[in-house]
Amino acid sequence: MQSIPKQPGVLGIDVGTSGMKMAFYDFEGNEILSTREEYPTYHPYPGWIEQSPEDWWNAVIHGLDTFWKRNLNPQQIVAIGLSGQMENCLLLDQSGNPLHRVLLYSDSRATGEADLISRRIGKKRIQQIFGNRIDHATTVAKLLWIKRHHPEWYHLAKTVVSGAKDFIIFRFTNQYVTDPTNASTTGSMNILSRQWEKAIIEDIGLSSSLFPPIVPATEQVGVVSQDASMQTGITAGCPVFCGLGDAGASQLGSGVVGSDRSHCYLGTTGWVATVKSEYSIPQSEGLFVLSGPDLYQYLYIAPLLNAGRAYDWILRVIIGEKKRKYHEMEHLLSAIPYGSNGLFFLPYLVGERCPYRDSNATGVFFGLTDQTTDLDMIRATLEGVAFGVRQALEITMDPTKIKEMVVTGGGSQSKVWSQIIADVCGCKVTVPTGSSIGPCFGAALCALVGMKIKRGFSDIEPLWTQGRQFYPHEKNREIYKNLFQFYAKLYPTLKPLFKKKKIGDGR
């Protein structure tokens, strides 16, 4: 049995898409204990993507039970901070019971409602007020879909939940709240005032009373109730802090709190994000802007639908069930010349959101010859994603002003990939040590700052400087500079073909 230090600490909980992670941290931000619980996703119809909020809550209960079995004392948890997936839609009734399964951010059923809202308000006005476009992922579009297709749910509703962590907050405290980062994705919050645009909400036929109060990420929103204590084992009266949506928590947890650093996340999907102190309307169709955890701070996020997804795909296609050891694959890929012997890969396996928003786009290998090897194809895939990271970086900030890119997520564990990104982007890449860095850590930081254990988010910076560093090699940087210019021409050249027909769809 693992020996757990007996000092107090804070609990960070991240309710992600594939599962829930929780971790217990000491007051210096060191991870003492962590666990993960997965839950299913439901696809009742094409384009419908749902989860059960009860599965989220049960994952929290099971995760805490694991902690108790590993000898963590409930009294050691002095505060809780939360994070979770955003752009969801869930209605709760007067008693706080879910009226249906959660419509996830990736659910596409509300495309028609999004178009209707955009026409009624006007796309330009939407961006000026909300900072982001309204599409099928946006909470307000899903809410309108529910009202039109399930009025019985809508008329029984007390509140709408857009962030997964907000449901967990309610289960812990019986309080309805959300934070500015999460509210930024709903298509309902003024990006500058950080208040709901009630007149616009009412104008599109929805009730503004459904939207919960917006409070700062570091604000205590309540305490663990007696009932929640009975279910989870956490001491009743333990303070619960609002926290923030997963994109903001990941940014915070990676230590990117200044404008000279950028954060790149390489999970199944990914993003490139930076912090700015002033708001400006996004000029790229693939760029999102969210209110940050600090007042007058904004997160500019360029999302990538194809990151680790592309790497997993090419390994599955090339290697199949023959699993090579990770270190062996790394060694083999490092021997392939930069540029993968003239092979390029456009990694749009499921369409893309940035730098181009195009659901019709597909993956493309360009430059295949009878000399192309399987390793060329694998390395070209990594380089293709890295070129996409470079494009995302260019629309979030001036690449010449970046001092460091912090790379997290499963893809960051590849030394070859991290070095490619450093060479392609022309900046130092830092991969933080350990699993403590990320949205779960960002959630815990909100609690540490809220409890005034830490003065501010930058007070824990030494943790963020720990890790592996990758510096761009000048020769490789020049090679990739030329290759990137060619890569950037691929999508614009192929766009008419993507638009005309999808390959193999019979049209």
Q: What separation lies between the terminal Cα atoms?
A: 61 Å
Shape: globular
**CATH H level of the largest domain: which superfamily?**
ATPase, nucleotide binding domain
- Radius of gyration from the CA trace? 23 Å
Q: Low-confidence spans: pLDDT under 50, at least 5 residues?
A: none
Helix coverage percent: 25-40%
Structural class: alpha+beta
Q: What is the top-level CATH class of the largest domain?
A: Alpha Beta
Largest sheet: 7 strands, mixed
DSSP helix count? Answer: 17
How many individual β-strands?
19
CATH architecture of the largest domain: 2-Layer Sandwich
Q: What do the pLDDT scores average to?
A: 91
Strand content: 15-25%
Number of folding domains?
2
Task: Describe the overall structure.
The protein is an alpha+beta fold and 507 residues long. The protein has two domains: 239 residues, Nucleotidyltransferase, domain 5; 216 residues, ATPase, nucleotide binding domain (Nucleotidyltransferase, domain 5, 2-Layer Sandwich), CATH 3.30.420. It is 36% helix and 20% strand. The protein is built from 17 helices and 19 strands. It has a seven-stranded mixed beta sheet, sandwiched between helices. Strands 3-2-1-5-10-9 form a six-stranded mixed beta sheet, sandwiched between helices. A two-stranded antiparallel sheet has the order 4-7. A hairpin with a 3-residue loop joins strand 11 and strand 12. Helix 11 runs antiparallel to helix 13, helix 13 crosses helix 14 and helix 14 packs across helix 17. The termini are far apart. The model has no long low-confidence stretch (mean pLDDT 91).
